[in-house]
Amino acid sequence: MSAEVKPKIVGYLPPDMPDWGALISLGFQQVLTMFPATVLVAILTKFDVGVTLTASGIGTIIALLVSGRRIPLYYGSSFSYITVVVTAMSLYANDCFSDATQFYCPEGVKIVQVGIIGTGILEILVGLLIMRIGKEALDRVLPPVITGSVAIVIGIALAGTALSEASANWLVAFITLIVTIAFSVYLQGKGLIGMLPILLGALVGWLVSIPFGLIQWDIIGQAAWVRMPAFTFPAFGDPNAWAAITGIALIAIATIPESTAHLYQMSLYIDQLAKDLDRKPLEIKRLIGLNLVADGSDDIIVGFLGGCAGTNYGENNSLMAITRCYSVPVLMCAGVIAILLGFVGKLAAVVNTLPTAVVGGLSIYLFGVIGMQGIALIQSEKVNLFEPRQLAVGAIILIAGIGGNLGLKDGLFPFPIPVVFPNGIPAIVFAAILGILVNLIFLILPPSKFGVKERENINY
Question: Is the pTM above the cut of 0.85?
Fold first, then answer.
């Protein structure tokens, strides 16, 4: 009886270099996966689409090099920063969101760039700190109840924006919303197409908009095939730059845990593939600090160029898990393709014809998902919500962040701080600071010092 022949395992670990045909096709697949969300953030925040694509490619390549080509992650635009970016541009470049036909607002972008660079510096400092003292110490200052609650605020505080956009044409918006949800649910596990529900939903919404006369065809006709992306220099001299830095950089409170979770997830899959290939596990989960330094490097690059604030993409991580391709050369190839796409003027023009109602339909779903991910973080970390101190921290973040953004004039708490927040503190920033300070009180004066016993969590 012949011995059983084991099936050949096919896959690429981070150092592996596929042949040129596989390299380019796998790289293009990575770009296709990141494209819908990355471009949508640019549309929602009125950044230049070409710059955003080019900056995404350059930022990814730089981040891969900073990590020593050990951490295979692709960087696209982050939804987590939309709230503070829209707030900052509305406050300091008033015309940005008053005209629905304006696709790109350079004056607002220049101010926000300073804040994105500040975020990059903060992420690098936190990464270096973790490399020195360990992640556990940081988790005490930023426990899951804070990071999860801030993530909830980021998503839900945008509810008014999503509904306002959808109101441009409710029928088109709801058709877009329903088909996008259907694609995300029913195409799961269907290969690459199952990873593109946003792109497919946007395409259906765009097609549905045609008989309603919502497509501005002249934008495409007037665009050049090849054009220079509208790179801008950060407005370091603007008096509002400090407010942008403080407000935008604080959102790293939510993105740092997200990035760390992606790293842990990738490490599991990569080490399993290494085992299947009879090779040594890479254990990239040990590189938490270096990963954040790479994240910060990406944000500094996109900040200087005028692209949207970045994050490593879960969509691309899932694609790598499906294809078993974690090759860093493939991701670098994807970066080069994204850079080249940024120079295609017709592509940016087609993207800019996406009607406001379609964007609104997509936003209802996407912003809600951001909020739900915050709940998922609290749930996955088994935060004890029967414990009053945990409830207190989460409660004040939610009410101050969501209520302040929706209920206060311009979403600002009326506590001006000279230079930093001369007009008042943005609600999401105030909520994050308030949560951190209350948590610090409990660290300095733990309830156990007063004979209070922590309530037991429910364990199902």
Answer: yes
